[in-house]
Each structure stands twice: as structure tokens, then as C-alpha cells.
Design a protein that fits this description.
alpha/beta, Rossmann fold, globular
């Protein structure tokens, strides 16, 4: 059974119901818990993350890394977009949810920035023009079915100038504890060697607004990166509530 779920609608619902928690799923960032203090704490996590990435790139990928134009795919409320914009001449943030873009615009204004463009997203990044020196996509693709996500990875790489740096993260496995969320999907299943095959679709679907987590084939992702990347390709392990992932950092060489 293929996954035909419209995760864009899920994300739009999350953006309206609980946007900050949708980006960082911690109780202190629930809608009812948010305050000016919590918002500052939330945004500081983005500043720390981008500062660490820029430091990593300068130390191990390109010591002269000074990007002028940057793209943040899945910018959400602007947690990473704002600190990126502080470090570049022009920043572009894209997101599929209008409510997220509205919140991102609010954070951009609060930061006193005038170098940010916000755009609606699609699987071809059709509204994103030109090339970039830095492309970022972190804890985003994991919520998009891989058959769409692979296409988006190609679209992001195509928009990297030669010498540009990418920061891309995907998840590839999850704890067995999450099997309980898979059980309602089918009436029966069978084992095919080490694989589990669903039999007879139950018709059950998680309610709209559910944040789904998808597992990517790292062979596929690494092959896509290898077509464009030089050396080194940095692979940093990530763990998000027992979802295993890899954060790739690399420079486009061809």
C-alpha cells in the first residue's frame, strides 16, 4: 500500500493549531505555554544551531565560507531563517503553510531584518529563482513522503551554485515502539523474509493534522548528493524522539 497522504494539509493544520510545537515538539512550546520568554528561548535554539553549522562549515568544508544568498526550505515560523538572514545579504524562506509564513514574517520584522523573501512551496520549488550559496533543510523532509522528498532534494541541489554549501537532514529508521501507530493500517500482514507486508487495507487513516515521520533510503539520498558534492561530505547522526536520522553537510563541486 503506497502512502498517498496529503502531508501538506497536515502541516497547514499544525501551522494553525500549534505552530511552534509543530517545529520543536517540546511541551514548553505548546501554544498555551508560549510567552515572550518562551519565544525568545525558541528562537535562541535556531541561533545556536545556525552558529554551529557555520562554524562547522568554516572548520571542515570551506574556511572562506561567507554566503551572500541563502535558501531555507521548510522555514516554518523562522527559527532558522532569522539567524541565517543575519549572516547573509539575501535570505529566501519557503513553506507550504500560509500560517507559518505569516509567523515567519512576524519574526523577521521583530528581528529588524529587511533582506528576507518568503514564498509558498511546492515539490519543484517553482517560485524560487536563481542560485544560492547556502541551502538549509533541517527537520523538514522527515515529514514528507520520500517519493516527494527525493524530488525536493534534487530541486534544492539544482539551486546551489558551484561552491555553495548544503545542510540537509533526513530520517531513516525509528524505534519498534512506533509499530503501534502502524497496526491500524491493515487487517493482516505477512513476513517476507525480514520485511513486513501489509495485507487488506483497513481504511484507517490518522486524523488530519497528525505529524507523520517518514524513513528515507540513505543509499538513494547519498547517491543524489554524490552527483553534485565534493569532499568531504559530513554526516552527523540525529535522534529525534527515537527517530534516527542523518544531517548531511556538503559543498557543491559539479
Amino acid at each position: 500500500m503506497s502512502d498517498t497522504r496529503d502531508t501538506d494539509n497536515d502541516w497547514k493544520r499544525v501551522a494553525e493549531d500549534d505552530p511552534f510545537w509543530g517545529v520543536l515538539s517540546r511541551d514548553q512550546f505548546r501554544k498555551e505555554a508560549m510567552s515572550e520568554e518562551r519565544l525568545a528561548e525558541f528562537m535562541e535554539t535556531g541561533e545556536q544551531f545556525i552558529g554551529d553549522i557555520f562554524g562547522l562549515v568554516k572548520a571542515h568544508v570551506s574556511k572562506d565560507f561567507e554566503p551572500k544568498r541563502a535558501l531555507d526550505f521548510g522555514c516554518g515560523v523562522g527559527r532558522l531563517l532569522v539567524p541565517i538572514a543575519r549572516r547573509v545579504r539575501e535570505a529566501v524562506g519557503v513553506d507550504v503553510a500560509p500560517a507559518m509564513l505569516e509567523l515567519a514574517a512576524k519574526q523577521v520584522r521583530a528581528a529588524g531584518l529587511d533582506n528576507v523573501t518568503l514564498l509558498p512551496s511546492d515539490d519543484d520549488l517553482a517560485q524560487v529563482d536563481g542560485l544560492f550559496d547556502f541551502v538549509n533543510c533541517y527537520i523538514v523532509l522527515q515529514h514528507i513522503p520520500p517519493e516527494r522528498g527525493y524530488r525536493l532534494i534534487d530541486a534544492m541541489i539544482e539551486r546551489m551554485a558551484i561552491g555553495a554549501v548544503a545542510s540537509l537532514q533526513v530520517t531513516y529508521a525509528k524505534s519498534r515502539a512506533f509499530w503501534k501507530y502502524e497496526e491500524p493500517r491493515s487487517r493482516f500482514y505477512r513476513r517476507d523474509g525480514r520485511n513486513i507486508v501489509d495485507i487488506v487495507d483497513s481504511g484507517w487513516r490518522a486524523p488530519e493534522g497528525t505529524i507523520n515521520m517518514y524513513d528515507y533510503d540513505l543509499n538513494q539520498v547519498m547517491a543524489q548528493i554524490s552527483l553534485a558534492a565534493g569532499q568531504p561530505v559530513i554526516a552527523l547522526p540525529t535522534t529525534d524522539d527515537d527517530h534516527l536520522g542523518v544531517h548531511f553537510v556538503f559543498q557543491r563541486a559539479r
